[in-house]
Design goal:
Low-confidence stretches: none
Bound molecules: 5'-O-[(L-methionyl)-sulphamoyl]adenosine
Structural class: alpha/beta
CATH class of one domain: Mainly Alpha
Mean pLDDT: 94
CATH architecture of one domain: Orthogonal Bundle
Distance between the termini: 78 Å
Helix content: 40-55%
Radius of gyration: 28 Å
Length: about 550
């Protein structure tokens, strides 16, 4: 059988001077769930590749390191480890973690820049701008005007300064970019982001500076040098964008390019949807298939801020995972996150509502209801499927088939929440079916009516098999909890089994009559909306008189 086309998904590489928070963890969790789902759909793990990593050549790394009596490299090492550990703690299974200070990245960047110098796409020119000598930095024309051409820090006049600089001929690619975006509606997603880029591309694109000078200031000595010109270094953003390519620019991984999806946040859309594709066009490299720019998380309706105390840092995320399980947290991020483009709210009340509805009262309760009845009425032995009364609204073979078709279609357009909601929909149907067929009432009649036992068997088999299918679809979001369910139900799928087989109701991976189902612990404990918010210090109790 021919192997499926490679699926390469990337996250942004994160600045090492920050500490991991919900923004970073969200993107990597979405990429992880998408990669798991792609592996499941293909029934093949090797053709899917998830890349995350860290962006380490920012000037801030040098200043932060100096402030902490460290070297830039040691500082970057420490923080890169923190990101890696954060993602591992959230069960994100990346295939590689690229760091821009690694030789396998930084030694390749000059090669691409040299190629662009050769074609003339990168050329040496002169940069003129408003310079704040006290801060040793340029201000944009707008910022300079707003500050009345005075330093916003020390009030001294800004000076017009000129220096040698390398430029990339971005302007030369404007028409080709427009044509590509127009011909490929999925290239930039969601649609609002696509419109945003198209709108900006209606104005003339200027060439952009892609180097920074190296001076006596140690901060300027950090980074990748321009080939053949050590007095200049590659601008950190250009260096960073190449990570997506350097990681797979090896004989073993070359087939992963072009990437299927670059998953990013909306604030870094321009770099990914315009500058990066133009660089690739100039190099004659194929373009990624999709740039997906998600919205941002806010917290309790407001922009996250440390001073407001509403910041969702890694510690707060771990506190939620401790209280509601890691998969409970993953489910909230994946189904309620800002993927569609709108910003999303991490609100405690909403978290509890979704957790209780989808998980504690949803799959968790449904699975235990069904297994408890199999234990009670059939001694825990999966009963033989038979002809349960045909109820047109509860044709589970058709319901499951439709859910998996929609699951695949939703993942293709990167609508992760819609994909996972297909599984919740199956669970709602099973709950409805139990209410309509009332197996607990039927069980009371089996002694007087022998056919009732067969009917009970058929109903419970149907419920269990539908829950199994839902659990398969939910597994990329909640790998641990679904594995726990499969283990008590003795239906752990074999490695590399295809979704088409796994999610077919009554198909090749169906529950086997005669196998055993144990009661097991509740998958998700019900959450008490009045309990203290995880990660917050409880208010002192009122003094007793
Ligand atoms: N280093 C660059 C990316 C280079 S990619 C070649 C960078 N790093 S970052 O660490 O500042 O941000 C990484 C990502 O975090 C961005 O995609 C950004 O959108 C995302 N988020 C930061 N705060 C966020 C939220 N509050 N919510 C969701 N994502 C947010 O930019």
């Amino acid at each position: 059988m021919p192997s499926p086309a490679p699926y390469y998904i990337t996250t942004p590489i994160y600045y090492v001077n920050d500490r991991p928070h919900i923004g970073h963890c969200y993107t990597t969790t979405v990429a992880d769930a998408a990669a798991r789902a792609m592996r499941l759909i293909r029934g093949e793990s090797r053709s899917t590749f998830l890349l995350t990593g860290t962006d380490e050549h920012a000037d801030k790394v040098v200043t932060s390191a100096a402030a902490h009596n460290s070297t830039p490299q040691a500082w970057a090492d420490k923080h890169a480890d923190a990101f890696r550990a954060a993602f591992t703690s959230l069960n994100c299974g990346f295939d590689d973690f690229i760091r821009t200070t690694e030789p396998r990245h930084k030694d390749k960047v000059p090669g691409y820049i040299s190629a662009l110098l050769k074609t003339g796409d990168i050329y040496k020119g002169v940069y003129t701008g408003w310079y704040d000598a006290g801060q040793e930095e340029y201000l944009t024309e707008t910022a300079a005007r707003e500050a009345n051409f005075k330093s916003p820090i020390n009030g001294k006049p800004l000076v017009q300064r000129t220096e040698d600089c390398y430029f990339f001929k971005l302007g030369a690619y404007q028409e080709r970019l427009l044509a590509h975006i127009n011909a490929n509606p999925h290239f930039i997603q969601p649609d609002a982001r696509r419109q945003e880029v198209l709108g900006r591309l209606r104005q003339t694109l200027n060439d952009i500076p892609v180097s920074r000078p190296v001076t006596d200031d140690p901060a300027t000595q950090w980074g990748v040098r321009m080939p053949g010109d050590p007095a200049n270094r590659v601008y950190v953003w250009i260096d960073a964008l190449f990570n997506y390519y350097t990681t797979v620019d090896t004989p073993e991984r070359k087939h992963f390019w072009p990437a299927a999806v670059h998953l990013i946040g909306k604030d870094i859309l321009w770099f990914h949807a315009v500058i990066w594709p133009a660089l690739l066009m100039a190099l004659n490299f194929p373009l990624p298939k999709m740039i997906f720019g998600h919205g941002w998380w806010v917290s309790e309706g407001q922009k996250m801020s440390k001073s407001l105390g509403n910041f969702i840092d890694l510690e707060r995320m771990h506190a939620y995972a401790d209280a509601f399980s890691l998969d409970g947290l993953r489910w909230y991020l994946l189904t309620q996150g800002p993927l569609s483009g709108q910003d999303a709210d991490f609100s405690h009340a909403k978290f509890i509502e979704v957790y209780n509805a989808d998980l504690a009262n949803g799959i968790g309760n449904c699975a235990s209801r069904v297994s408890n009845m199999i234990v009670k009425y059939f001694d825990g032995v999966v009963p033989t499927p038979g002809n349960a009364a045909a109820l047109p609204d509860y044709d589970f073979k058709a319901i499951c088939a439709k859910a998996s078709v929609e699951y695949v279609a939703a993942l293709d357009r990167f609508d992760i929440a819609c994909a996972f909601n297909q599984a919740s929909e199956i669970i709602r149907k099973v709950d409805g079916y139990i209410n309509v067929t009332a197996p607990f009432k039927l069980a009371k009649t089996v002694e007087a009516n022998p056919t009732a036992k067969q009917e009970l068997a058929a109903i419970l088999y149907t419920c269990a098999e539908a829950v199994r299918v839902a659990s398969v679809l939910m597994a990329p979001a909640m790998p641990q909890k679904m594995a726990a369910l499969w283990s008590t139900w003795n239906c752990t799928p074999g490695a590399d089994t295809k979704l088409a087989d796994l999610a077919a109701f009554g198909g090749p991976c169906a529950l086997k009559p005669g196998s055993t189902v144990a009661k097991g612990d509740a998958l998700f404990m019900r959450a008490d909306p009045a309990a203290p918010i995880p990660g917050t210090i409880p208010a002192p109790s009122a003094p007793t008189v």
